[in-house]
């Protein structure tokens, strides 16, 4: 490796990481260009601040939605393609509960249970119906966790120990079945959920313009951070957390050490899916609408976040989520709006090539 | 892992093993044709309708058979988990469209001859496959799956973007049509039957007139004749792709592929440049996917809706039904998937609505209106709800998911996958007196 003088070790450094260096140069060029654009008035500081805020909100959503995926990925060693539909289940189940609590008596039961009641009339927001929202969040957590356990029992448990690819294919089957059962019962088509413009919001002056922050964005951000910290504490300082990390490192070793692996797997599903359900509910709250496929549409971005952070790393999922969220929104500085998602995927692919072990690679356990 | 071979499955396996590939394919074709003829008769179709039904399942079966064969080369032979099938299909179709549609249409194309367009589409798909494989093949299995899936979405979203709806490169206008899509050149089969195949209203040629006249007399209309002829051409294509891949599989090249699938480290320890082999396989497979997609869409519309990830999953389900690793199984999987899982539910719906006359005047709008009357033991609203057009499509995908889970749990080797050819040219598994593989 390093042989003698500084220059030759630098050359070796460059030779070892051609992609990494090229990427660093590209990012640097983009940043210079960003400042040039700001100076020349191509975009305003408020635009940029708006992108950053949207990116942070999206990033926190992805990070929160990614924790569950990261947990099951590290324990069961397969990419769960049904995870996106767990997000949808959380959103749908939670919002049906919220609708029922806030609208019972004032609207038809059926329209509440199918989410077809007018969201403007119901006018749900954290300010007007905090109880309904808390109930919805709890229902989302409980039902998603219950459904994940059921699916694990039916589909994944009989397949324990099989190759990751077999489990991945099974999870694609689960994803299709769950999503289209939802379509069958609810019918497709977007559903409005919140009071929309009536939601409390604040205009913050940035430079010459303003950035609007809504109460729902703040709720999502605050709860996402709180849940992530909670998960961290849980995995770091409880026996379950130790057992889970031990299993992620080496399942056989964990088993001979007397760790009840099957119980740890169940608890992991319970926790992971619960968090996923919460994420689905909160993402729907922030967006003010949902469809039966919104989770599936988020899935690749969530994968991107989780892979970026290093599979199985909970911090990684948070960091990865923020990187993906910010990258996709900041891409608006250079690219038209139709490329937001493309930009996020490209970032994922590039990072996978440069650093397949993820940003926080090596730290595969928590 | 060995599969549980209980009752019917064991019997089926034994039955399959006793027959040659050609006999299996012919029997499957005969069985499917007989089934769909019967269904058409039940539905009261005339001869034209029956022919049209058979044409449709032949067409879809042939397209899926080609796609599955291409994927089988990548996954079944080499173990590359490519979830980007839809993306490579889109590249083939859109490249062909942009090369061969007339410059005067909207979106404009280059107006090159169709063979150039088709060759260009296939080459583009192969080339992009090569380029995509360079980085992708450094990744392990599940990352490869996610990256290829993301790649296919990048392709789809790019073709869909308004930026490329119409654009010009060096003064030449081109376009993908964005979210509205792009009409593709007319089906070349029309050259056989029409004087001006490019025009919809063209009078038939002398040959066309004779053929149309003959079939018109027995109640088969011209478009059905045209489509049937095309379906037969597609069967020839399937045979060609099958022959090509069989040769590839049995060549020394193919043996290396199987060795890579079984143990890549061993293959490279034996001095094979496994990366190069994988890249070639990726290019060939993606090119064939492009070709299949071109044959699928030609004469119609190229729309990004057709290239959603669900299309990739369709091909995977078909491959798993047939059994990864077997070319004959791939063709069978394509046919079984296309006719029974893809088209089947619609026929079930038609037969059911005809026989049970479930009061379609008042199809319930919501699940509550459908389930509510169950309390008074009235099944009709639930049936009517279930059998409505949208809900049958939804349930079809639920069925697909359930089939996928069932197969991967109980019969991961599919119909014929247990006959997966091993890397060795002699069977090492059945040593006399030795234990089974």
| Strand neighbour order, sheet with most strands of chain B | 1-2
Assembly type:
heterodimer
Number of strands of chain A: 4
What ranges of chain B have pLDDT less than 50 throughout 5 or more consecutive residues? 1-5
Task: Explain how this protein is built.
The complex is a heterodimer of chains A (366) and B (437). Chain A has 15 helices and four strands. By secondary structure, chain A is mainly α. Chain A has one domain. In chain A, the strands form two sheets. In chain A, strands 1-4 form a two-stranded antiparallel sheet. Chain A has a two-stranded antiparallel sheet with strand order 2-3. In chain A, helix 4 runs parallel beside helix 8, helix 7 (130-156) packs across helix 12 and helix 9 (215-237) runs antiparallel to helix 12. Residues 362-366 of chain A have low confidence and may be disordered. By secondary structure, chain B is mainly alpha-helical. Chain B has one domain (7-356, 388-419): ABC transporter involved in vitamin B12 uptake, BtuC (Orthogonal Bundle), CATH 1.10.3470. Chain B has 17 helices and four strands. In chain B, the strands form two sheets. Chain B has a two-stranded antiparallel sheet with strand order 1-2. Chain B has a two-stranded antiparallel sheet with strand order 3-4. In chain B, helix 2 (21-42) packs parallel to helix 14. The model of chain B is unreliable at 1-5 (pLDDT under 50). Chains A and B meet through helix 8, helix 13 and helix 15 of A and helix 6, helix 13 and helix 17 of B.
């Amino acid at each position: 490796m390093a042989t003698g003088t500084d220059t030759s070790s630098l050359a070796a450094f460059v030779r070892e990481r051609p992609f990494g260096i090229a990427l660093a140069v590209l990012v640097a060029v983009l940043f210079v260009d960003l400042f040039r654009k700001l100076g020349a008035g191509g975009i305003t500081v408020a635009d940029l601040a708006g992108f950053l805020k949207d990116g942070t909100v999206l990033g926190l959503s992805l990070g929160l939605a990614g924790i569950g995926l990261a947990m099951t990925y590290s324990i069961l060693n397969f990419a769960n393609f049904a995870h996106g539909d767990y997000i949808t289940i959380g959103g749908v189940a939670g919002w049906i509960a919220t609708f029922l609590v806030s609208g019972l008596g004032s609207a038809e039961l059926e329209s509440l249970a199918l989410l077809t009641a007018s969201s403007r009339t119901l006018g749900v927001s954290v300010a007007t119906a905090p109880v309904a929202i808390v109930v919805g969040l709890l229902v989302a957590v409980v039902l998603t966790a219950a459904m994940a356990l059921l699916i694990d029992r039916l589909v994944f448990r009989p397949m324990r120990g099989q190759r990751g690819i077999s489990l991945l294919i099974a999870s694609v089957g689960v994803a299709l079945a769950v999503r289209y059962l939802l379509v069958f019962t609810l019918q497709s088509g977007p559903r409005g959920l919140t009071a929309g413009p009536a939601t409390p919001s604040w205009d913050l002056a940035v430079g010459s313009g303003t950035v609007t922050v809504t109460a729902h964005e703040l709720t999502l951000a605050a709860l996402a951070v709180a849940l992530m910290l909670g998960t961290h504490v849980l995995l770091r300082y409880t026996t379950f957390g130790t057992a889970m990390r031990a299993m992620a490192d080496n399942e056989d070793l964990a088993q001979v050490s007397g760790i009840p692996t099957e119980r740890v797997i169940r608890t992991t599903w319970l926790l992971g899916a619960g968090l996923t359900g919460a994420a689905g509910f909160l993402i729907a709250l922030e967006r003010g609408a949902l469809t039966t496929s919104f989770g599936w549409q988020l899935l690749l971005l969530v994968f991107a976040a989780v892979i970026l952070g290093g599979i199985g790393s909970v911090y990684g999922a948070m960091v990865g989520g923020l990187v993906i969220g910010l990258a996709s929104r900041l891409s608006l500085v250079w690219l038209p709006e139709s490329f937001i998602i493309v930009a996020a995927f490209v970032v994922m692919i590039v990072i996978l090539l440069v650093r397949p072990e993820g940003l926080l690679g090596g730290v595969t356990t928590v | 892992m060995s599969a549980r071979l209980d009752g019917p499955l064991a019997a089926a396996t034994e039955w399959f093993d006793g027959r040659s590939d050609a006999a299996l394919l012919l029997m499957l074709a005969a069985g499917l044709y007989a089934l769909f003829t019967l269904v058409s008769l039940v539905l009261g179709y005339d001869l034209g309708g029956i022919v049209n039904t058979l044409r449709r399942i032949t067409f879809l079966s042939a397209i899926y058979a080609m796609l599955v064969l291409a994927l089988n080369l990548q996954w079944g032979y080499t173990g590359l988990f490519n979830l980007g099938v839809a993306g490579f299909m889109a590249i083939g179709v859109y490249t062909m469209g942009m090369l061969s549609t007339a410059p005067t249409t909207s979106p404009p194309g280059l107006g090159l001859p169709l063979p150039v367009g088709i060759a260009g589409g296939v080459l583009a798909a192969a080339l992009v496959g090569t380029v995509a494989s360079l980085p992708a093949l450094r990744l392990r299995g599940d990352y490869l799956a996610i990256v290829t899936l993301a790649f296919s979405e990048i392709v789809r979203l790019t073709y869909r973007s308004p930026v490329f709806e119409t654009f010009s490169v060096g003064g030449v206008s081109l376009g993908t049509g964005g979210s509205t899509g792009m009409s593709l050149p007319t089906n070349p089969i029309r050259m056989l039957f029409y004087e001006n195949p490019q025009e919809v209203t063209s009078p038939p040629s002398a040959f066309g007139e004779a053929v149309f006249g003959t079939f018109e007399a027995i109640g088969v209309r011209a478009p059905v004749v045209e489509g049937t002829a095309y379906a037969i051409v597609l069967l020839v294509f399937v045979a060609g792709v099958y022959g090509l891949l069989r040769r590839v599989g049995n060549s020394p090249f193919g043996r290396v592929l199987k060795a890579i699938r079984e143990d890549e480290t061993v293959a490279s320890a034996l001095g094979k440049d496994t990366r190069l082999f994988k890249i070639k396989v990726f290019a060939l497979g993606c090119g064939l996917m492009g070709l299949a997609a071109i044959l699928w869409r030609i004469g119609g519309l190229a729309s990004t809706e057709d290239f959603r990830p669900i299309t990739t999953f369709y091909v995977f389900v078909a491959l798993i039904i047939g059994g990864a690793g077997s070319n004959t199984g791939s063709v069978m999987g394509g046919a079984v998937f296309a006719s029974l899982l893809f088209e089947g539910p619609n026929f079930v719906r038609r037969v059911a609505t005809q026989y049970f006359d479930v009061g379609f005047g008042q199809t319930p709008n919501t699940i509550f209106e459908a389930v509510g009357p169950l309390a008074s033991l009235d099944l009709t609203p639930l049936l009517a709800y279930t059998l409505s057009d949208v809900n049958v499509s939804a349930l079809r995908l639920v069925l697909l998911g359930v089939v996928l889970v069932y197969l991967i749990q109980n019969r991961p080797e599919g119909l014929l996958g247990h006959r997966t050819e091993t890397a060795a040219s002699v069977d090492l598994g059945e040593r006399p007196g030795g234990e089974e593989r």
